[in-house]
Amino acid sequence: MDTPPSSPTQSELAITLRELAWTVHRRAPERAGVGPIPTTELVLLKQVMETPGATVGELSQTLGLHQPNTSAAIRILVQRGLVARETSDEDRRVSKIVPTELAATEHGAIAEEWAGSVDAALENLSVEHKVALNRALDALQALDRALRDR
């Protein structure tokens, strides 16, 4: 008699989600024609797109990065024309980081490649796996919100 498969542990699920995210993440920029973008810069670009006008300190805190690393990555993104520094109206000593039009274009291309590569991979899955993933969507979105709120 066949024994039913055991349920994955939380650690196994967490590791699988990490590996899945990393696989999707590392393949998208080059495949989108954007060229290689180091992880820190890619993460910062995504955060600047989500929170335009944040300071380097705010970006560092949100992403859990050391401020010197954030500053260095922002300098590179400025050189690449993906973000710009704007002086704060409230305090002229403070720079706010904003995305450029090029950033919006490249961010969109990367997002489309991420979605496209996942869509293509989904086509190779069984109907049962597709159904299981669709049923898990709400739970995965709740997990994402819970992680962002930490």
Structure notes:
The protein is mainly alpha-helical. Helix content is 67%, strand content 7%. The protein has helices spanning 10-31, 39-50, 56-63, 67-79, 101-123, 127-148; strands spanning 83-87, 95-99. A two-stranded antiparallel ribbon has the order 1-2.
Provide mean pLDDT, rounded: 85
- The percent range for strand residues is 5-15%
Order of helices and strands: HHHHEEHH
Q: How far apart are the first and last residues' alpha carbons, in Å?
A: 45 Å
Strand order of the largest sheet: 1-2
Shape: elongated
Percent of residues in helices: 55-70%
State the secondary-structure class: mainly alpha
| Sheet having the most strands | 2 strands, antiparallel
Brief summary:
The chain is mainly alpha-helical. It is 67% helix and 7% strand. Strands 1-2 form a two-stranded antiparallel sheet.
Task: Kindly list the characteristics that best describe this protein.
150 residues; mainly alpha; two-stranded antiparallel sheet; elongated
Blueprint (SSEs and pairs):
Elements (H helix, E strand, L loop, with lengths): L9 H22 L7 H12 L5 H8 L3 H13 L3 E5 L7 E5 L1 H23 L3 H22 L2
Antiparallel strand pairs: 1-2
Helix pairs in contact: 1-5, 2-4, 3-4
